């Protein structure tokens, strides 16, 4: 029985190329060695994927935070302008 590749080609962008190569080498290894390494390899791959998802979520949250700050800065500036205009109107009376 021929061992299959650890990951299809479409997953290469999801995990580092070096890790995919290691998976292919483990798949090509003799059964005695492969059995020992597969569990550890799967844990590493899961960890890499989890970290990428977390990084993506953090980047998305930072982008949203930046946008929210821009809106707040705009709102603050408009509020200051309105305050100054009202202040000027009161002084004119």
Draw up the topology in text.
Layout: H1 17-28, H2 31-92
| Helical stretch tally | 2
**Whole-number tally of structural domains:** 1
Please count the beta strands (DSSP E, at least 2 residues each).
Answer: 0
Element string (H = helix, E = strand): HH
Low-confidence stretches: 7-12
Distance between the termini: 94 Å
Roughly how much helix do the residues carry, as a percent range? Answer: over 70%
The geometry reads as rod-shaped
Rg calculated over all Cα atoms: 28 Å
Beta-strand residue fraction: under 5%
Which structural category do the helix and sheet elements fall into?
mainly alpha
The overall pLDDT average reads 88
| Sheet with the most strands, sense and barrel status | none
Please give a structural write-up.
It contains 2 helices and no strands. The protein is mainly alpha-helical and 93 residues long. It has one domain (9-92). Helix 1 packs antiparallel against helix 2 (31-92). The termini are far apart. 4% of the residues are buried. Mean pLDDT is 88; it is low at 7-12.
In short:
This protein is an all-alpha fold. The protein is built from two helices and no strands.
Question: How would you describe this structure in keywords?
Answer:
93 residues; mainly alpha; 2 helices
């Amino acid at each position: 029985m021929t061992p299959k590749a650890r990951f299809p080609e479409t997953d290469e962008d999801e995990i580092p190329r070096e890790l995919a190569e290691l998976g292919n080498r483990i798949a090509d290894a003799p059964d005695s060695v492969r059995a020992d390494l597969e569990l550890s390899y799967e844990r590493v791959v899961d960890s890499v994927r989890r970290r990428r998802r977390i990084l993506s979520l953090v980047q998305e949250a930072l982008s949203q935070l930046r946008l929210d700050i821009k809106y707040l800065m705009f709102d603050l500036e408009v509020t200051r302008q309105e305050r100054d205009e009202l202040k000027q109107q009161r002084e004119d009376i």
